[in-house]
Amino acid sequence: MQTNPHAPTRATRATRATRATRKEWTALAVLMLPLLLVSMDVSVLYFAIPEVSADLRPSGTQQLWIFDIYAFVLAGLLMTMGSLGDRIGRRRLLLFGAVAFGAASLVAAYANSAETLIAARAVLGIGGATLMPSTMALVRTMFLDAGQRAKAIGIWTGVMVAGIALGSVMSGVLVEHFWWGSVFLVNLPAMVLLLLLAPLLIPESKDPAPGRFDLLSVPLSMAAVLPLVWGLKEMPAEGVRIEYVASVAVGLLFAALFVHRQRTTASPMISPDLFRGHGRAFGTAVSLNLVSSLAVMGSAYFTTQYLQSVLGKSAIEAALWALLPSVPIGFAAPAATALVQRGMDRAHVVAAGFVIAAGGYGLLALAGTDSLWLVLTGAGVLACGAVVVGSQLTDLALGAAPAEKAGSASSLLETGQEFGGALGMALLGSIGNAVYRDAMPGSAPAEARETLGGAVATAHHLPGRTADTLLTTAREAFTTGMHAATLTGAVILLAAAVLAMGALRGAGVREPENAGRAGEISSPSGV
Questions:
Q1: Which of 206, 208, 212, 207 is nearest to 267 (CA)?
Q2: Under a CB-based contact definition with an 8 Å cutoff, are residues 70 and 184 in contact?
Q3: Reduced to 3 states, what is the DSSP secondary structure of residue 204?
Q4: d(CA 157, CA 385)
Q5: Which residues, other chains included, contact 58 with Cβ-Cβ below 8 Å and sequence gap of 6+?
Q6: Domain shared by 255 and 174, yes or no
Q7: How many CA atoms lie within 13 A of 183 on its CB side?
Q8: Which domain holds residue 82?
Q9: Global pTM value
């Protein structure tokens, strides 16, 4: 019996069956809408808060909660929502989140009291916690081909980073031309579009055998995440106080209880299987991705203050200048993906990303008190390195995780990013603040010795020459503190590069699944 040498083999046909078509790429574009808006809402109030304060007259505590409640609720519910999506369906959870996010945006836009705005921001956090892991999990289940999935995840990473950068600028532009509620109304058209297009383009997917939902794990996870994030975020601004240390300790205690619960219960929220076998790569990727987030947020803590308080830029000017380092980010992830697809070991690419990011920190360590372009270049180099690392580690983690646990895997990655960001601000911010206080003369006013912002505020009430002297001293002290923090960050990143070289060498992912996974993926119409 003769065979046709040009006939496609079974393996070739299977590979073709797993490759995404134009429909999946269009669905990816739809998924980027909620991701962009959720990431933008982290920073969307930066320039709107003066208008909010004048209109709603919140107390100091209420103003802090208007800022922080969104990020706290988002971080606290990520693991819960990721696990819930695996059980009820990721597309269904995405649509529920879109309704909640849109409704809360409408309430926030027309809030007539601080309490109403705080409540609306909390619901926005709930919606965000459903949207973020759902988008990443759906990318995992729609793109079965490893190469295509890597490209899709690179796009996902770039959109998330761009959203955080764009949020503050967009709020400044909108508040300049409209009222403060407009920063929330921009969410509505995108949510409506998502609700219309998602059922048509995005297939439903869920765990075919998820087991019961462990209700006890929900409060345990929140009791672990919220105190940790709050304590770590407050330390850079307020110092290492007993209440913040106690908060971190309480969070770690509940984290240990949460882990114990996941290891002993019959139906855990986060399956320990994620960390076994192929999951060893998953655990390593989550840990290293946390370090990457530490680097990004640690640098942002200093660069934003540098632009405003050292160089004297207005808030909107600083935000516009801060967009420049985001420009090359769009090329970083695709370049890294291309290198891996051409045969370069992923361990080498991730390690190179860490080294590049460390180089960005090195440039920041060379900055003086008038080094705008050096700081922007350093921030851009650091961001490119971090995006290389983040895109590759996200691809590795989701590829190593089973598709039926995509929601849980995505939520763990994103929770790790939240921890990394808070830890970066706490660790590097505390180092920088400690050096700043040590460098400030004892004769300076007490408020000026605490922070650069305090020095700027104090200088407004001093005569010209005295104010100039105080500002010059404070800016030099801040820059010295930034040098110490950025050098520490560079050392951490270089250590992470060495770890990546060893831990990720030859790390692979699961084989591509066949297109027809019964019970797990249905057609966009739900059939």
A1: 212
A2: no
A3: coil
A4: 13
A5: 52, 66, 114, 117
A6: no
A7: 30
A8: 24-205
A9: 0.79
Q: Please tell me the distance from the alpha carbon of residue 281 to that of residue 28, in angstroms, as a whole number.
A: 25
Flag whether 434 is in a domain.
Answer: yes
Do 443 and 364 share a structural domain?
A: yes
Give the whole-angstrom CA distance, residue 102 versus residue 186.
10
Query: Both 172 and 235 in a single domain?
Result: no
Residue 158: which CATH number?
1.20.1250.20
Overall number of domains in the chain: 3
What are the pLDDT digits (tens) for 324-350? 877 777 777 778 778 877 878 888 888
pLDDT in tens, 70-121: 877 887 888 888 888 777 888 888 888 889 888 998 998 898 888 888 899 8
Q: Give a yes or no: residue 383 inside a domain.
A: yes
Structure tokens at 114: 């601080």
> Which residues pair with residue 521 across a beta bridge?
205
Residue 527 inside a domain? The answer is no
Positive or negative: CA dihedral 7, 10, 15, 16: positive
Quick check: is 257 in a domain? yes
Q: Which of 205, 228, 254 is the last residue of a domain?
A: 205
380 and 423 Cβ atoms separated by less than 8 Å:
no
Tell me the C-alpha distance between 521 and 73, whole Å: 30
Q: Go through 294-321 and write b for each residue having 16 or more CB atoms within 10 A of its CB, e for each that does not.
A: bbbbbbbbbbbbbbbbbbebebbebbbb
Mark whether 260 and 310 lie in a shared domain.
Answer: no
Indicate the DSSP class of residue 511.
P
* Closest to 294 in 3D by CA, of 446, 418, 476: 418
